[in-house]
Specification:
Layout: H1 30-41, H2 60-65, H3 82-87, H4 104-115, E1 175-177, E2 183-187, E3 189-196, E4 202-218, E5 224-231, E6 235-242, E7 248-252, E8 262-265, E9 271-275, E10 281-285, E11 291-295, E12 302-307, E13 313-318, E14 323-327, E15 333-337, E16 344-349, E17 355-360, E18 364-369, E19 375-380, E20 386-391, E21 397-401, E22 406-409, E23 415-418, E24 426-431, E25 437-442, E26 447-451, E27 457-461, H5 468-586, H6 591-705
Length: 731
């Protein structure tokens, strides 16, 4: 969506020239020093003859009055004075709009003149207002969650003692939820109570001494809380607090003679807009509390006020059903929304600033777009009247009203959840920063927190808290009760966790057993196959090995027989040869006997040689026979061994096969048991966590409410011994 941006017209036709001489360079004044500069650069468009933007700088009173966009000179603060910031091109629109910037020497005259208080002439008295103690204005408005942790009240910084304790709970006239933190603020008589949205713990109490609080708004960055109200027919104030410390930053409302009905802080934190019973919208400067502008358009009490999240627009609604949208920085009318027929009770912008929700006593919630002020949606939300409506950060809406019912809607007005009815008419509603909880309060002072998803009540907050001492007693009793409640929950959790572990271990064991049975069966089957194959192979080798063994046995027997025969004949031939040789030796004259001796000796030698050969052949043949016989024996043993092993493993196969299915069937049963016991732990864990949270919350409440221990007594410093003076020398 495109918003019109309106600018302050400060400049005139840009001309180039040298800076004029001025009377006192160190103490400039309007008449002698500033007027020549303005004549040169500004008065053509902002003088007596022409006043663009309603601004006339030709006279001192006219210039100090400002233009249609407000004052242009803030004495003592040139950086907040648009006469200087626009002329020096520090802000938009730059002045002169179509020319060069003024010479630095002339800009210095204007800057110094404003800084020193903006004197009219050399005899004027300087009147510089006191500068603010805290400057919280932002240079730009960011979108989305700010950097850093969300601002939360710091323990010990905020008071916990209620300022007022009434006889009955206070009607919930003012309620707000932090946009980025779990903090709920509820207003009452002279005090604001801060609660933790998640735990329901009381975080602190802020004082509002000005009377009844009618409006509460967190700043868009959640760092500040604006409270507005007052005393009817007497006075009104809007007070800005720092959320983390509870310190008062500033307060405005010096012009109010009646209680402020509604208020809001601009997104850049420089303006506070208030709505009053005087049909007036009054906009204050946060910096010094002065009135920036007043808007007189409404025809009845101004009951609702809210700046758009981007800081561009301001929406207001009145008791007569009128809704207007203004330009935040100028106060000029931007849109008029017509349609409601009764009092406007609440306004809320969607986070993108493109859609405005309005709630009315006519019972309807209406959504308006900002391009043409068209009505996008319109539905009957609460019979009898809508009292409050708020956009959530995710674009949904919550509302409550005279029908006593709080409702959650989607962005198109479709009902998503309806929460239990209040005992009295609903007054205010909010939604938590994370969109998970809805907070609502009614006329009787009931303040409830619901879960947005299921509409369950998670907390009922006290709008009229007891004194801290009584709350401390209750908190201490709550610690005892919570710890007593936590023990059986923790015991049940421990038992459930043990059971779940046992079931998980059983599941793992079942898986391991099923895997082992299958693996053992596979091994046995493989061994049966392998041993059977080996037995068959060995069996096939037995017959040829036996034939070879028989053959070698027969050959060994022949060789042995031959060696045995020669073992007999060879010695006999040797003995015969020796006898013949001896006879021949005795009868050398007998040639026949000599020839016989020679022949006998040759035969004996041949026999001896054959004996040696036969003995070696017998030995070799016996060795070959042994190899053949051993190989046959080994093969026959292999047949027997493999046959035995195959039979043994076949027995294992027979035993393991019927075990496979039961082992496999046991796995899903064990898993189901493990899953069931694990699932049973979850609610036990939730219960234990809940009781632990109760204990922690109760202990935190005790710690918050207990007075700090007295400081330890100061320990006096140990005296330092002073050395004795030296003894003077003897004379």
């Amino acid at each position: 969506m495109r918003y019109f941006r309106l600018f302050l017209a400060v400049s005139a036709v840009s001309t180039v020239g040298s800076s004029s001489a001025f009377a006192d360079a160190k103490n400039p004044n309007y008449t002698d020093d500033v007027t020549p500069v303005l004549k040169q650069h500004c008065m053509a468009c902002h003088g007596n003859d022409k006043q663009k933007g309603g601004l006339n700088v030709a006279t001192f009173p006219a210039m100090m009055q400002g233009g249609s966009s407000g004052v242009v000179v803030l004495p003592g603060n040139p950086d907040k004075s648009r006469l200087f910031t626009l002329s020096s091109h520090k802000e938009e629109p730059k002045m002169p709009p179509s020319g060069a910037k003024m010479p630095d020497a002339q800009l210095e005259i204007i800057r110094l003149w404003i800084e020193q208080g903006g004197r009219e002439n050399s005899g004027s008295k300087v009147n510089v207002p006191a500068k603010p103690k805290v400057d919280i204005g932002l240079t730009s408005v960011g979108k989305g969650k700010p950097d850093g942790p969300p601002p939360m009240p710091i323990a010990g910084k905020l008071a916990v003692e209620p300022i007022v304790r009434s006889r009955r709970p206070n009607s919930v006239l003012a309620l707000a939820a932090s946009p980025w933190a779990p903090v709920i603020a509820v207003g009452g008589q002279k005090q604001i109570i801060l609660y933790h949205a998640d735990t329901g713990a009381l975080l602190g109490v802020l004082p509002f001494e000005h009377g009844q609080i009618n409006s509460l708004k967190f700043s868009r960055n959640a760092k500040f809380l604006l409270a507005a109200g007052g005393r009817g027919g007497a006075s009104g104030k809007a007070v800005l607090y720092r959320v983390e410390t509870g310190e008062k930053v500033t307060e405005v409302g010096s012009s109010e003679t009646d209680a402020i009905l509604a208020a809001d802080l601009s997104a850049d934190q420089t303006l506070i807009a208030v709505g009053t019973s005087g049909k007036m919208i009054r906009i204050y400067n946060v910096a010094d509390g002065t009135v920036a502008r007043e808007i007189k358009k409404h025809t009845d009490w101004v009951c609702a006020v809210e700046f758009s999240p981007d800081g561009v627009l301001l929406a207001t609604g009145d008791r007569n059903g009128g809704v207007f949208v203004w330009e935040a920085n100028t106060g000029r009318e931007f849109h008029t929304m017509r349609g409601h027929t009764a009092m406007i009770t609440d306004l809320s912008w969607r986070a993108d600033s493109n859609l405005l929700a309005t709630g009315s006593e006519d019972g309807t919630v209406r959504l308006w777009e900002m391009e043409n002020a068209g009505q996008v949606k319109n539905w009957a939300a609460h019979p009898g009247g809508v009292e409050s409506v708020k956009f959530s950060m995710d674009g949904r809406l919550v509302s409550t009203g005279r029908d006593k019912i709080t409702k959650l809607w989607d962005g198109n007005g479709t009902l998503q959840k309806q929460f239990e009815a209040f005992p009295d008419l609903g007054l205010r509603v909010a939604i938590s920063h994370d969109n998970t909880k809805v907070i609502g309060g009614d006329w009787s002072g009931i303040l409830k927190v619901w879960v947005a998803a299921d509409a369950k009540v998670v907390a009922t907050l006290d709008t009229n808290p007891l004194p801290a001492a009584e709350r401390l007693k209750l908190a201490e009793a709550a610690v005892v009760a919570a710890e007593a409640k936590a023990k059986p929950a923790n015991d049940a959790l421990a038992a459930g966790q043990l059971k779940a572990k046992q079931a998980a271990d059983a599941y793992v064991a079942a898986q391991a057993n099923a895997a082992k049975v299958v693996a053992d069966l596979a091994v046995a089957q493989k061994l049966v196959t392998d041993h059977t194959a080996a037995m068959n192979a060995a069996t096939a080798q037995v017959a040829p090995l036996k034939a070879e063994a028989d053959k070698q046995t027969a050959a060994a027997a022949v060789a042995a027989n031959k060696a045995a025969s020669l073992a007999v004949t060879a010695p006999a031939y040797a003995a015969a040869a020796k006898s013949i040789q001896d006879a021949a030796a005795k009868a050398p004259q007998n040639p026949d006997l000599a020839a016989a001796a020679k022949a006998a000796t040759a035969t004996a030698t041949q026999q001896t040689t054959e004996l040696a050969a036969a003995q070696k052949a017998a030995t070799d043949s016996a060795a070959v026979q042994k190899v053949a016989v051993d190989k046959l024996a080994a093969t026959m043993k292999a047949v027997t061994d493999n046959q035995t092993a195959a039979a043994a493993n076949q027995a294992k196969v027979v035993a393991l096969t019927p075990m496979v299915k039961p082992a496999a069937d046991a796995v899903p049963l064990a898993k189901a048991a493990a899953d069931a016991t694990a699932a049973a732990v979850a609610p036990l864990q939730v219960a234990a966590n809940a009781t632990a949270a109760e204990v922690a919350t109760a202990k935190a409440a005790v710690a918050q409410l207990k007075p700090p221990p007295p400081p330890a007594p100061a320990v006096p410093p140990t005296p330092v011994p002073v050395p004795a003076p030296p003894t003077p020398p003897k004379k």
